Amino acid sequence: MSNSCSDEGKIVYRLYEISKQTSPKFERCTGISQSRLDLLTKLFEVDEISQTELQKEVNIDHAAVTRHLKQLEEKGMVTRRKNPADNRFMFVRLTDEGRTSISAYQDEKQRFISKVLNGFNEEERSLLLNMLTRIQDNVSNIDPND
Amino acid sequence: MSNSCSDEGKIVYRLYEISKQTSPKFERCTGISQSRLDLLTKLFEVDEISQTELQKEVNIDHAAVTRHLKQLEEKGMVTRRKNPADNRFMFVRLTDEGRTSISAYQDEKQRFISKVLNGFNEEERSLLLNMLTRIQDNVSNIDPND
DNA sequence: GGTCAATCATTGACCCGTCAACTAATATAA
DNA sequence: TTATATTAGTTGACGGGTCAATGATTGACC
In chain A, how many domains are there? Predict the structure, then answer.
């Protein structure tokens, strides 16, 4: 139990370190941030989608989504239009240009991912994914008012 | 191999999700950010230390360390003084008040960590820690110019 | 039909991080 | 000893995130 306790802190700390070290490298390797590519990938999978619906698929809040999309619009990667049937909704879709440039990012991302998991065989990957999923469940069940 | 490839992306994405979901909850549960508590914990373990030496122990850059410490100084958690023997160095140390308030944070942190790893037995923890360490190694070996 | 509530998007204030430029102090070496 | 390099710390510009307040639009209900 004493070992288990001392490992506990290390695991959570390691997760924290990994994320802090991975984010900047991901961005340098692929040329885009994880969040933004995540956003674009969701857009890639659909034709047109409302911002809130998009937001629910992604780990960032409304405000950040709005700002990302405004910047992406300026860059000509996406277009936005109001839902004619309900003007509260903003529909977003990739431009053709945006759609083609994503695949380059995706390729870089795939190369990056392979490096991160270098040396892990199939069994280990599945084990790891399973554990991470359990951790994610635990985290989502944590209630700050406790 | 196809399974392995599809899992690859999920693992890295899960790591990304976990960190994004954990950080805000950690802060709400413990009342302090992971980075700041990390900084304070290092300070707790020593008597007096220079800022660069402190920075090397932590995953944040010089600028952020400076800003953290200035804020902590305003709150009365730390004191700073120049090294009389070399005025380039800024020595930092916890105040008595800072030293006592850390232990409360540490307790909350420990409770938080236990929740995150709920349901993991000792063997799993050690396996997981091992895998995460390998991933961290892989990440640190990634060269953006490649 | 008009008021009230709910929903989507936007904005502002703030926190935290990086990078790059800068200042100040010290070390080095011609 | 004086010019140059190095080192520690600070600051400004910026990117990106959250939360809370606001505005606009629509739905629901008396």
Answer: 1
- Which of B27, B45, B120 has the most A C-beta neighbours within 10 Å, making it the best mutation to test the interface with A? B120
Structural domain includes residue B64: yes
**Which H or E run includes A86?**
strand A86-94
The larger pLDDT score, comparing residue A120 to residue B1, is at A120
Q: In the 8-state DSSP scheme, what is residue B144?
A: S
The answer as to whether B62 is a domain residue is yes
CATH number of the domain encompassing residue A39: 1.10.10.10
Distance CA A81, CA A43 (A): 15
To which H or E segment does residue A118 belong? none
Ordered DSSP codes for A9-77: HHHHHHHHHHHHHHHHHHHHHHSS-HHHHHHHHHHHHSS-EEHHHHHHTSSS-HHHHHHHHHHHHHTTS
Percent of chain B with pLDDT over 90: 84
Nucleotides of D under 7 A from a protein CB: 7-13, 15-20, 23-27
Contacts of A13 in chain B (CB under 8 A): 38
Q: How many other CB atoms are found less than 10 A from the CB of residue A45?
A: 9
Q: Give B84 to chain A, closest Cα distance, Å.
A: 34
- Domain that residue B75 falls in: 21-103
pLDDT tens, position by position, A59-111: 899 999 999 999 999 999 999 999 999 999 999 999 999 999 999 999 999 99
pLDDT in tens, B53-110: 999 999 899 999 999 999 999 999 999 999 999 999 999 999 999 999 999 999 999 9
The number of C-alpha atoms within 13 Å of A14 and in the hemisphere containing its C-beta is 22
CB contact under 8 A, A138 and B118: yes
